[in-house]
Specification:
Chain lengths: ~575, ~260
C-alpha cells in the first residue's frame, strides 16, 4: 500500500475525502501564493506573480527573529530562551491568524463556487484548517529560522535544540490555529446567525488583547530581565501555553523531569482536545453554517441605520450627523465616500472581521499599563509616562491601519463606479476617506483614552493636555498613505497576508516618527520647555504640515484606472 | 454625438480594439455586437473614459475622452455587464452615493430615486431597508440601471443591461431606451441578444477580433450579406468554422 492510499484511507475513516482535501488545499495554496494579478494576458508570455504581502511578512518575521534570537548569546537559559521564542511565535501567529481566519473560514462567495459540489463538511473544514495551518507554519518557520540555530548557544542547550525547537514551534503554531478555529467554530455552533457577525468581530478583539497581554505578561513572570538564571519549574507555567511547548522541547533534548513531562503533557493534551473539538463538534456542521451564511435569512435589512424617510443615515445621532455633514463633509463626492466607508466599517462582516482585531491595538498599551500599574500621570512628576504616551501614539497608528485595511473589500468590483463618475480630483475621494476614519476610528479612540486617563489620574485636564497634541497631528499622520498612491476605498481584492503585512510595515514605518513626537512631548512635560509652548508649536505646525502634505500628495491628480477597478 | 477615429487598444502585441472608426449622431440607438472577446467592453471602457486608448481618438459631443475625461463622464451614463454594487448598502444608499458622486443635490437625488423606484416597481421597503446582497439578480440590475441613468446623461452605454431582468421588465426597458433615443439621447448598446438588438436598434455594428466587420441598418446588413436574420448575418461574419457541424460532432463524441 502506497503512502498516498494509506493516507486517503486514514482520512476516510474520519469522514474526509483525501482526494478532495488535497485538491481543495492545492487551490487555496495557489490562491495564497499568487499575486492579485496572477496571469498577465495579451502578452507574448503569460507569467505568474507572487503574493508580495506574504514575502513582506516572512521577511519581517525573519528579521524580528534574528533580533530576538540574539538573546541566546547572552547566556540565556535554554528553557527561558525557548519559552520566550515560543511566546513570540504564539503571539505573531495568533495575531496573523486572527486577521486572516475570517476570510478563510467565512468566505460567503465560495458558496456559489463549491457549494453545489459533493464535498463533505468535514473535508471542507479540514481543507480550511490545512490552509490556515500552512500559513501559520510559514510564519512560525520565518520567525524561528534564526532562533532555532542560535538556541544551540543558549545555556544548557545542545545540538538537539534544532530538532526540539522546530517541533515545539510547529506545535505552538498548530495550537494557535486550533485555538482560533475552535473559538470560531463554537461561535458558529452556539450563536445564532443574526448575532454572529458582531460577536465574531468583537470576539476577535478580545482574543487579540488576550494574546497581546499574554505575550507581555508571561516574559515578565518568567523573569525575562535576567535571562541567564534557570527559573526551574513554577506552578504558573501551567497557565502559560508557550511553557507547555517548551516542555516538549526539553523532553526532545533529553531533559526529562517531572516539570517537563507535565508541561509536554499539557501541550499534547491541548492539541488533542482542540483537534477533537474541531472535528467532532464543529466540522460536521460547517457546510450548513456556511450555507446559512451565504444564503440564509441573515441580517440583510438595516432599519437602525436608515432614517424614517429612507435617507442615507450612517450616523445614528441626528444632531451629530447634521453637524458632521454641515461642517466636515459638505461636498457631495466627499460625503458619498464618507458614508460608504462609515457604513462598511460598521456593517460589513468581512471588513469587521478583518479590521477590528487591528483596531484593538490602541487598547493594548493602556490596558497593559493598568494591569502593571504603570499608567502614571506624567504632569505630576510620575516617571511612568511611557505607556501613557504610547497609548496616545497608537491612535494615529490604528488610523493608518484602518486606511490600509479599508482599501480592500469583497465588493471591490463595485469600485468601477469611481471610474464612471466625473470625479475631477482624487482629493474629494481621499478627503471623504480620511474624514470617515477621523470620525469613526480616531475620535472614539481619543474619547476612550481621555476617559481612561481621566479616571485613573482623577484629572481630566491632564488627560486632555496629554492627548491634545496627538489629536492635532492625527490628520497629518493620516495623510501619509495618500502621499504617493491613489487610495480608493474598498477597491482591491483582498489576498491572504495583506492585512498582516501592512500592519507590520506600518508599525515599522510609523514607529520612528511617532516615537520622535512622543520624545518631544516627554521633554516638554519634563519642563525643559514650557508645555504651553509645545502645544502652541504643534497647533501651528500641524496645519502647516497638513497643508504642505496635501500640496505634495497626489490629491490634485485625476483618478486613474487601476488593475482592480478595470478588471470587472 | 459619438466619434471614434481609428480607436485602438493594444495589450502587448494583441489588438483588442483595432482601428475602429465610427460616427454616431445624437438620438441614435446603436447595437454593438460581437462574439466573446471581440473587444466590445474594451471599446465601451475607452468611450466612457475609464480606460486610455493606445492610439486613435474618441469624442463624445466634441469632448475628448482622455483630455476632457471628467466632462465626458458628466454627460455619459454606463450600465456595466458585471452588475457589481456595494452589497452592504441598501438600494437607496447606493443610488444616493452614485448621485452624490455625480455631484447632484440631495433633493434631486431623492426625487430621481422615487421615479426609478416607481418605474421599476421597487417597493420603499426593499429600497430603504434591504441590503443589496439580499436583492435578486433582477432587482439588483434595476438598481444598476437606475444608477447609470440617475444623472440624466446625454449618452448612455449599456453592456448587457437585460441580464437577470424578467420578461415584463425587459419589455419596459426596451420601450424606455427607444423613448430615450427619441428624446435625443445617444445610446450605445452592447449585447449578445441578437433578437433584442434586431428589434430595438436603429443601427447595428458588428465587431470581430477588434475590427468592425459590419455597420448599417438591419436592411443594409441583410442586403450586403445576402442573409435573412441578424443571427445568420452575425454567424456568417464572425464564426470562423461551421458552428452547427461542430456542435453535432461534439454531441456525438460526448456520448461516452
Amino acid at each position: 500500500m502506497s503512502l498516498r492510499s494509506f493516507t486517503y484511507r486514514a482520512l476516510e475513516r474520519h469522514g474526509i475525502d483525501g482526494r478532495q482535501l488535497f485538491a481543495l488545499f492545492s487551490v487555496y495554496f495557489r490562491q495564497d501564493v499568487r499575486g492579485g494579478k496572477a496571469f498577465t494576458q495579451f502578452r507574448a508570455k503569460e507569467y505568474v506573480t507572487a503574493n508580495r504581502a506574504l514575502l513582506v511578512i516572512v521577511g519581517s518575521y525573519v528579521f524580528i527573529g534574528v533580533v530576538l534570537g540574539m538573546a541566546a548569546f547572552t547566556r540565556a537559559d535554554v528553557f527561558v530562551f525557548s519559552a520566550l521564542m515560543l511566546t513570540f511565535t504564539l503571539f505573531i501567529v495568533a495575531l496573523a491568524i486572527l486577521s486572516e481566519a475570517g476570510n478563510v473560514l467565512f468566505n460567503e462567495n465560495e458558496g456559489d463556487i463549491i457549494g453545489h459540489l459533493p464535498i463533505s463538511p468535514r473535508t471542507l473544514f479540514a481543507a480550511k484548517i490545512l490552509n490556515l495551518l500552512s500559513f501559520t507554519m510559514l510564519l512560525g518557520a520565518a520567525a524561528n529560522l534564526f532562533p532555532t540555530i542560535a538556541g544551540i548557544w543558549a545555556s544548557g542547550s545542545n545540538l538537539l535544540f534544532v530538532v526540539a525547537h522546530t517541533a515545539s514551534a510547529a506545535l505552538v503554531s498548530m495550537f494557535a490555529t486550533g485555538l482560533v478555529v475552535v473559538s470560531y467554530g463554537l461561535l458558529m455552533r452556539y450563536v445564532n446567525r443574526e448575532r454572529f457577525d458582531n460577536i465574531v468581530a468583537y470576539g476577535q478583539v478580545i482574543l487579540v488583547l488576550f494574546f497581546m497581554l499574554g505575550s507581555r505578561v508571561f516574559p515578565r513572570v518568567l523573569g525575562a530581565e535576567s535571562l541567564a538564571g534557570s527559573p526551574g519549574f513554577r506552578w504558573y507555567f501551567i497557565l502559560c501555553p508557550p511553557a507547555w511547548f517548551s516542555g516538549v522541547a526539553m523532553l526532545v533534548m533529553g531533559k526529562i523531569d517531572t516539570g517537563s513531562l507535565l508541561l509536554a503533557g499539557l501541550a499534547l493534551g491541548s492539541l488533542i482536545l482542540l483537534g477533537a473539538v474541531a472535528f467532532r463538534k464543529i466540522a460536521g456542521g460547517y457546510s450548513s453554517f456556511m450555507s446559512s451564511l451565504a444564503y440564509g435569512p441573515e441580517r440583510r435589512t438595516t432599519a437602525p441605520q436608515t432614517s424614517a424617510n429612507g435617507a442615507m443615515d450612517p450616523l445614528r445621532e441626528g444632531l451629530l450627523k447634521r453637524m458632521i455633514y454641515s461642517r466636515l463633509v459638505r461636498r457631495p463626492v466627499e460625503r458619498a465616500v464618507f458614508d460608504l466607508v462609515m457604513i462598511y466599517l460598521r456593517r460589513n462582516r468581512e471588513i469587521k472581521v478583518r479590521l477590528y482585531p487591528s483596531l484593538a491595538y490602541f487598547l493594548f498599551f493602556p490596558l497593559l499599563a493598568v494591569f502593571t500599574r504603570e499608567l502614571g500621570d506624567p504632569f505630576i512628576g510620575s516617571d511612568a509616562r511611557f505607556y501613557s504616551l504610547i497609548g496616545a501614539a497608537m491612535i494615529p497608528f490604528v488610523g493608518l491601519t484602518a486606511v490600509e485595511g479599508l482599501i480592500f473589500s469583497e465588493h471591490y468590483q463595485a469600485s468601477h463606479i469611481f471610474l464612471v463618475v466625473p470625479i475631477g480630483r482624487l482629493a474629494d475621494v481621499h478627503r471623504g476617506f480620511r474624514k470617515a476614519l477621523l470620525i469613526a476610528v480616531a475620535a472614539p479612540g481619543y474619547a476612550v483614552l481621555c476617559l481612561l486617563y481621566s479616571v485613573l489620574w482623577r484629572n481630566p485636564w491632564h488627560a486632555l493636555l496629554l492627548l491634545l497634541p496627538w489629536m492635532m497631528i492625527t490628520p497629518v499622520a493620516l495623510m501619509i498613505p495618500f502621499l504617493f498612491r491613489q487610495m480608493l476605498p474598498l477597491s482591491r481584492k483582498y489576498q491572504k497576508g495583506q492585512q498582516s503585512a501592512r500592519n507590520i510595515t506600518l508599525m515599522l514605518l510609523s514607529f520612528f516618527g511617532l516615537s520622535i513626537f512622543g520624545i518631544a512631548q516627554s521633554v516638554a512635560i519634563s519642563d525643559y520647555v514650557p508645555y504651553w509652548s509645545f502645544l502652541a508649536a504643534i497647533a501651528v505646525l500641524s496645519p502647516a504640515a497638513l497643508f504642505v502634505l496635501v500640496r505634495i500628495s497626489g490629491d490634485a491628480r485625476p483618478l486613474v484606472a487601476t488593475d482592480s477597478v478595470t478588471s470587472f | 454625438m459619438i466619434l471614434l477615429d481609428n480607436l485602438t487598444k493594444a495589450y502587448g502585441e494583441t489588438l483588442a480594439v483595432d482601428h475602429v472608426s465610427l460616427t454616431i449622431p445624437s438620438g441614435q440607438l446603436v447595437g454593438y455586437l460581437g462574439p466573446n472577446g471581440a473587444g466590445k467592453s474594451t471599446t465601451v471602457k475607452m468611450l466612457t473614459g475609464m480606460m486610455a486608448q493606445t492610439s486613435g481618438r474618441a469624442e463624445i459631443y466634441g469632448l475628448d475622452t482622455q483630455r476632457d475625461n471628467t466632462e465626458v463622464k458628466r454627460i455619459t451614463g454606463y450600465v456595466p455587464e458585471s452588475g457589481a454594487v456595494y452589497e452592504t448598502l441598501t438600494g437607496r444608499e447606493y443610488l444616493e452615493m452614485v448621485g452624490r458622486l455625480y455631484g447632484m443635490d440631495d433633493a434631486v437625488i431623492k426625487d430621481r430615486i422615487l421615479k426609478f423606484a416607481d418605474f421599476f416597481e421597487l417597493s420603499a421597503d426593499t429600497l430603504n431597508r434591504k441590503l443589496l446582497s439580499a436583492y435578486s439578480k433582477g432587482m439588483r440590475q434595476k438598481v444598476v440601471i437606475s444608477a447609470g441613468l440617475i444623472h440624466n446623461p446625454r449618452v448612455i452605454f449599456f453592456d448587457e443591461p437585460l441580464n437577470g431582468l424578467d420578461a415584463s421588465t425587459q419589455l419596459m426597458f426596451k420601450t424606455l431606451i427607444k423613448n430615450l433615443a427619441a428624446e435625443g439621447k445617444t445610446i450605445f448598446y452592447c449585447s449578445h441578444l441578437l433578437d433584442v438588438v434586431e428589434r430595438t436598434c436603429d443601427r447595428i455594428v458588428i465587431i470581430d477580433q477588434g475590427r468592425v466587420v459590419a455597420d448599417g441598418t438591419l436592411a443594409e446588413l441583410q442586403a450586403s450579406s445576402g442573409e435573412g436574420s441578424l443571427e445568420r448575418i452575425f454567424n456568417k461574419l464572425t464564426a470562423h468554422t461551421d458552428l452547427e457541424e461542430r456542435a453535432e460532432e461534439f454531441s456525438r463524441t460526448f456520448a461516452f
